[in-house]
Amino acid sequence: MLEVRGLKAGYDEVQVVHGVDLDIGEGVFHAILGRNGVGKSTTLKTIMGLLLPMDGDVVFKGETISGKPPHEIARHGIAYVPETRDIFGSLTVLENLQLAARMASGSNPAWTIDRVLAFFPNLAGRQSNSGSQLSGGEQQMLAIARALLMNPALLILDEPTEGLAPIIIHQIFDKLGELRRSGMTMLLVEQNFQFATRLCDTASIFGRGQCVWTGASDDLRADTDLHAQWLGV
Which of 85, 137, 220, 225 sits between 20 and 30 A of 71, alpha carbons compared? Predict the structure, then answer.
């Protein structure tokens, strides 16, 4: 579904990503792991069009999307949950969801407001609360719910567990597990090794702005030397 070929990206004149290759098949949940500053989030932002690539190609369902603006990439069927969540704090939970629902394509979407509220019952009782009144975990659930309302072919999540309490991380794990079992294609950047490798089918390790290893998550968990070399502090 998603092919990344020789991707180079960065900020102004500073190159952060140095020729990344990725292949994500339909129905696969893939994790990108690595220490801070190795280009994980930069890669996601470039796939989503928030950064222009310095070189390389991003191909989604057979069509090159590199260099297109984010709204066009979203219309192709990619939804993005940023690390900063970026919900509208002055709008209610329901209003945040209504905005996303209006942008969804198709006459019979699989994800509706009623369905996402049933999927995240924490939000159902807080529909009239503003986004700024939600806890960090509730804001993360709202960000994911909003992305689901786009009825994406590919869901991209950047550090969804950052700063959350363990009980909320467990809830997010369960919900992403449900999405995985439903066959949704997902790409995850995550610092929590156990969360990512127990949830995802496959994983890549980034180091020094490049993809240094890709394989099954089970193989990564079993190779203690590998994650000690590239993921240990």
Answer: 137
Dihedral of alpha carbons 43, 21, 147, 167, sign:
negative
Could you identify the residue written with the tokens 């994911």? Answer: 144
Angle formed at CA 41 by CA 37 and CA 84, multiple of 5 degrees = 110
CATH number of 1-77+154-160+185-233: 3.40.50.300
pLDDT band at 196 (very low <50, low <70, confident <90, very high): very high
Residues of the chain with CATH 3.40.50.300: 1-77+154-160+185-233
- End-to-end alpha carbon distance in the chain: 33
> Are the C-beta atoms of 49 and 37 separated by less than 8 Å?
no
Give the residue carrying structure tokens 């989030």: 41
- Inter-axis angle of helices 136-148 and 93-103, nearest 10: 20
* pLDDT for the residue 227: 81
